[in-house]
Amino acid sequence: MNNENELTNVGKSEVEDFKELQKSSHYRQTDHNNRMGRLSAWKQNIILVMLAVMLTYFATNYYTFHYGSYLASGDSIASLRESIEDLKSNVKKIVWFDRQRLAGDEVFAKVDKEFPAQYEMWVGDKLIERWHWRVENDPRTEQYGDYILRCVANYDSQNNYIGFTQHQMAGFPVDDPNKKDLKIKDSITLSIDTTNGRLYLSNPLIKVTWESGEYQFAEKVKNGFPHSKNHVDAMDLIQSDADFEYIKHVSKMFRYLKADVIDPYESKTRFAEIEAGWDWEKEILKASISK
């Protein structure tokens, strides 16, 4: 009898232990499920908050935070828009004019009609440079002759357009940032300043200035810096036949260059030729006989 009671007690104890094990497993599973549920709810709350912030801002210009909202100032919105515009304005654009162009600016359209370009570079709405050369079947481009001319826009510290600098190029533009400089070495450069009506012609050694068509002065240049004003003449710009031809080409538009540069140079050249062919001994003998 005692043995039976002991077996019964042992059986009850095992049943109770099994029940406790089931409860423990159930609680652990329930706790795991609760944690997973809380984690999912946390993620959902973050997504909902983000959506609320975005929808609230775009609908009302309000910034929404955990502790409330405030109205975005006009300055901050304007600053944001300016930043976007800055990003857009820094995009470089290359334009090849193999078809008729449509200029958005009326003044610029007139300039382009009179001086058509075959290549332009822009950064946003800012013109960087224009290239000109003669094009077959376009009589407007006859004015460029046999030259390839690169005109680089100049701007002041406030980013206002103030003129351009024209370079003589040895070849056509190439859309390659690693390209070598195509400028003809030691060639004459022309610059125009629209703020004071000045025209500059320069080479690596000399710079000459005109203002409103009137000759001002000539000066020497060293390492790009002018010095020694009026120690040279305008005709000293011409160092080669190519320089002379370019000055003649430019003088078709700026006619005062003929009197200030071309005529003095031609007179000097003729005198040099006469002097070189002059037989001094013969002339001296002739003069002595006549006496």
Nearest-integer average pLDDT: 75
The structural class is alpha+beta
| Radius of gyration computed on alpha carbons | 42 Å
Helix content estimate: 40-55%
Give the tally of β-strands.
12
Strand numbers in spatial order across the main sheet: 3-4-5-6-7-8-9-10-11-12
**How would you sum up the major sheet?**
10 strands, antiparallel
* Molecular shape: elongated
Per DSSP, what share of the residues sits in E-state strands of 2 or more residues?
A: 15-25%
Listing every helix as H and every strand as E from the N terminus to the C terminus, the arrangement reads HEEHEHEEEEEEEEEHHH
User: Count of helical segments?
Assistant: 6
**Number of structural units classed as domains:** 3
- Report the uncertain regions: 58-72
Distance between the termini: 179 Å
Please explain how this structure is put together.
With 291 residues, the protein is an alpha+beta fold. It folds into 3 domains: 2-69, no CATH class; 100-183, no CATH class; 186-291, no CATH class. Helix content is 43%, strand content 25%. The chain is built from 6 helices and 12 strands. It has a 10-stranded antiparallel beta sheet with strand order 3-4-5-6-7-8-9-10-11-12, with no helix packed on it. A two-stranded antiparallel sheet has the order 1-2. Strand 11 and strand 12 form a beta hairpin. Helix 4 (241-250) runs antiparallel to helix 5 (256-276). The longest helix is centred in the N-terminal third of the chain and has 59 residues, at 2-60. The termini are far apart.
